[in-house]
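Usage

Read records sequentially. Each one opens with the input sequence:
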Amino acid sequence: MSSFDQLLSEQIGHEFAASQQYIAIAVWYDDHDLPQLARHFYRQAVEERNHAMMLVQYRLDRDMGVTIPGVPEVQTEFADHAEPIRLALEQEKRVSTQIEALFAAARAESDGLGEQSMLWFLKEQVEEVASMTTLLNIAERTTNLFDIENFVARDMPNGDSTESDAPPAAGGAL
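and closes with the structure output:
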């Protein structure tokens, strides 16, 4: 199995794990009566699930075989309103590093199709890290949770993130 092939298989698991972690964050916000933050992270969970399914579809299209891995335990308790966002930002930075490694492996193996497939994910990660960084900055600047809720409602993406250039997701994007 090539390095790109192995990393791609692992990335499916990473994306599903990210989805599960975002569900846990959303539920925590829901349980703390912060509906805008909850809604935002429920949408993020669906987006990460879609990313996993895009990678599944890529493997199906290239006849690479697909194994769906289990996901590790997720964090469900947080000390304050900013900690879940801090965790989400760390997760997005980690995923960016993983996607960069996938791109580099494809390039090293002269796999032009693999390299090209990772370009959309690289662009997506720039947006994800920037968005989560902004949200964390807002959360750390205030203790007034209504300010954060208003910011999310007013300025965060509303979940219609299906871009025309997005890769297809196995079974269709949610």
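Summary fields computed downstream for this record:
- The two ends are 31 Å apart (CA to CA).
- The mean pLDDT is 94.
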